[in-house]
Amino acid sequence: MIAQAGERIEILIGSGVNAGVIRRLGGLLHAVSFHMSGKQKIDSGMSYRRENVNMGLPGLSEFDILRTDPEEIRKAKEALEQLCS
User: Fold this and answer.
1) How far apart are CA 31 and CA 81, in angstroms?
2) Residues 66, 41: contact at Cβ < 8 Å?
3) Which of 27, 35, 28 shows the shortest CA–CA distance to 11?
4) Using CA atoms, how far apart are residues 44 and 65, in angstroms rounded to an integer?
5) Is-contact 31 1, C-beta < 8 A?
6) CB 75 within 8 A of CB 19
7) From CA 55, how far away is CA 21, in angstroms rounded?
8) Which of 34, 29, 27, 44 is nearest to 72 (CA)?
9) I need a surface site. Which of 27, 51, 62, 77 has the fewest CB within 10 A?
10) What is the pLDDT of residues 2-28, one digit of tens each?
């Protein structure tokens, strides 16, 4: 898709992107545009927990909070800068 798009449109690679993916796919596909959350799971700190009562989306633990990890973003930025230099 990237080769077919040429200069007309920009193809954004996403889903599971991290610094390693940027290095591998960037070089393999000549990609320079990526989307990532850089998330990490942290404990919610809830003191009362009832395991069988789901208050959120099925399949997602309400005892975890997803936060962007600054270190993951820094590593991805570094990988992208190396790729584009």
Assistant:
1) 12
2) yes
3) 35
4) 6
5) no
6) yes
7) 34
8) 34
9) 51
10) 888 888 888 889 988 999 999 999 888
The distance between the two most distant Cα atoms of the chain, rounded to a whole number of Å, is 54
User: Tell me, what's the pLDDT at 54?
Assistant: 67
What pLDDT, on a 0 to 100 scale, did the predictor assign at position 56? 67
pTM beyond 0.85:
no
The Cα 47–Cα 70 span in angstroms is 27
All residues at 6 or more sequence positions from 52 whose CB lies less than 8 Å from its CB, including other chains: none
Tokens of residue 9, six digits: 């449109």
Q: How far apart are CA 74 and CA 1, in angstroms?
A: 28
Q: Which two tokens stand for residue 66?
A: 């997803």
**The two three-digit tokens of residue 23, written as one number:** 């290095």
Which residues have CB under 8 Å from 66's CB, separation 6+?
37, 39, 40, 41
Report which secondary-structure segment, H or E, holds 27: helix 19-29
